Amino acid sequence: MIVVAAGLLGFASYKATAPGSSPKETSATGPAAEVSADAQAGVYPELAKLARRDAGDKLAAGRADAPVVLIEYADFKCGYCGKFARDTEPELIKEYVENGTLRIEWRNFPIFGEESENAARGAWAAGQQDRFWEFHAAAYAEGAKEKGFSKDRVKALAQEAGVEDLARFMKDLDGEAARAAVAKDQEQAYGIGATSTPSFLINGRPIAGAQPKETFTRAIEAAAEQARTTGTAGSAEGSTGSEGSGNSGDSAK
């Protein structure tokens, strides 16, 4: 399996915490991810295959056939994830998602306990009513993390996000489908060696932490150029994904 093979590689980019240590938040103050002038350096083709490219994915933003896919593993209780969501991701969306270069795929990676799980399942449940990105924005707003993510609070965030059927939302929140979807994302993150949030893959290139925007820009540009030169860029026709914003990262403490 891809995840198992990837996990065995032990990527340097994901060594923010040693194996067996507690999950942590990873900020831009940590080691910056080096993006070589060589577009293929630091890129693992097996990891690129983790992009789902499902046009019906409710937890994604951008065209399903975009040449570059950024996969984000994040926790709503992660302060650095929130910083990325507020400061960096909107700019990446404006510069790269809107012109069809980039697709962002969210993976729930709850590492801070029960409230993290509540928020992750709430995000998934909001997505079932096409309000994932609105929930994402509400949960990552300034001061939202400090109010916690009890089930009542998650319901309030869903209401703020414009989720129409709150009864269905609460049912979905506690349903097996939500638990299975979150567990699948979480297992994938651990499988590739991620132990902190946020963690990212850009066309198979691992990046750990809420790095400066320039780190993401260089990785996206390198991946886009590689797609152009190899003829693997997605067609401009056909698939479309959801529009939305993203988040930044924390690591478990």
UniProtKB/TrEMBL annotation:
Residues 223-253 are annotated as: Disordered. InterPro entries: Thioredoxin-like_fold, Thioredoxin-like_sf, Thioredoxin_domain. Keywords: Disulfide bond, Oxidoreductase, Redox-active center, Signal. Gene3D superfamilies: Glutaredoxin. Residues 229-240 have a biased composition (Low complexity). Belongs to the thioredoxin family. DsbA subfamily. This is DsbA family protein. It comes from Streptomyces cavourensis.
